[in-house]
Amino acid sequence: MTTRPTPTLAVVGAGPKAIAVAAKAAELRGMGVDVPDVVAIERSVVGANWQAVGGWTDGQHRLGTSPEKDVGFPYRSSLVPRRNAELDERMMRHSWQSYLVASAQFADWVDRGRPAPTHLGWSRYLRWVADNIGMSVITGEVQRISTDGRRWELVTPRQIVHADGVMITGPGQAQRSILPNDPRVLSIAQFWERAARPDLIVAERVAVIGGGETAASMLNELFRHRVSTITVISPQVTLFTRGESFFENTLFSDPTDWASLTMAERRDALGRTDRGVFSARVQDALLADDRIRHLRGRVAHAVARDERIRLTLSSNRGGEALETVHGFDLVIDGSGADSMWFEPLFSQDARDLIELALRAPLSGDALQESIGHDLSVAALTPKLFLPGLSGLTQGPGFPNLSCLGLLSDRVLGARYPDVAPHPSTRRTDEHQPVR
């Protein structure tokens, strides 16, 4: 008998999703279960987007999700019949509580009332898990993704990685902004770099574009600076609070009934619980500061004029399209993640193959509606896993941190077509465990 080659799953980004999948794969392998080889390709460091180096935070603000929703949560594995309890027990070795015990922080954390860790503290936990499993990480930025119709080819500055499946994670680049060459308009990364300086930000009128948690963290930081008014610009009619009751949280942890909802009901649920909403903790801080204002609309145009940044906002009032212009001394573009940030990476042959599977031009809407149970684009070979776009079809917890254990089940439970023998693309220095 010939041994069937082991598939390779390449993950773009070494964040929580990559670590969750790699950790479960390691434990399954320890149980004697065949799983893909998981390798992450990371342009910076493990957990970079939770540290200042990633540009999305200064690392000092609090995690919006409970840390108990760690890489194994909700600990209801379904991959190994009659052995799933064993798998969950093994995954508990990588839990948030296990990390605190191992680092002598558990009693202190409990005595303080189980506070949310800082983003930097969360990144230390992720690094700890990656270290424990000897996670394979290639340091380098993916520059292009192409395909021969059977496997993916991921090009980095130093090497080419071949894979039978690709999972794309992360929010993209934190450097983009509506006016990238004007010092009075800051991207997310530029804002955190500026906020880290010893001198405070001084401005009369500040605008923050965005109504999600990225914008919320920046608002929390702005409170300590010398600014007179802070205007939050978002498409919503007001600044909504994320639903955090048992019923809303269950949607994230257990999407069993998600498929029974209509598309309209799903979109409504996503809008109420996840997209463009602030956590209750952040809303409490906003209520205590009378400098905060809200403007409804989308930024249609930005221009520097008369020593100010003029933003043209478009909105719909009573079925009528309206445009208004507002001037600010400082604008912070915190509109958040771009769910399609990876699209320019695809070569033309990859785009053609994806569009053939979609039976439609490549777009965010088409991809969202195509995501199947294993979080990959249906009918596409080789496998392309897009958990960041899976909320609409599979449940709101998969794009974020709310059910990483269930996410890893879905991805590792994917069926690959027969993997033909192929020359290994690995070198001795190619996949180095995290040190």
Automatic annotation (TrEMBL):
UniProt cross-references to SUPFAM superfamilies, sorted A to Z: FAD/NAD(P)-binding domain
Gene3D superfamilies reported in the protein's UniProt record: FAD/NAD(P)-binding domain (3.50.50.60)
EC number: 1.14.13.59
UniProt pathway: Siderophore biosynthesis; mycobactin biosynthesis
Flavoprotein listed as a keyword: yes
One Gene Ontology molecular-function label: L-lysine 6-monooxygenase (NADPH) activity
Catalytic function, reaction form: L-lysine + NADPH + O2 = N(6)-hydroxy-L-lysine + NADP(+) + H2O
Top-rank lineage group of the source organism: Bacteria
InterPro entries reported for this sequence: FAD/NAD-bd_sf (IPR036188), Lys/Orn_oxygenase (IPR025700)
UniProt key word ATP-binding: no
Cofactors required: FAD
Keywords: FAD, Flavoprotein, Monooxygenase, NADP, Oxidoreductase
Family according to the record: Belongs to the lysine N(6)-hydroxylase/L-ornithine N(5)-oxygenase family.
Protein name: L-lysine N6-monooxygenase MbtG
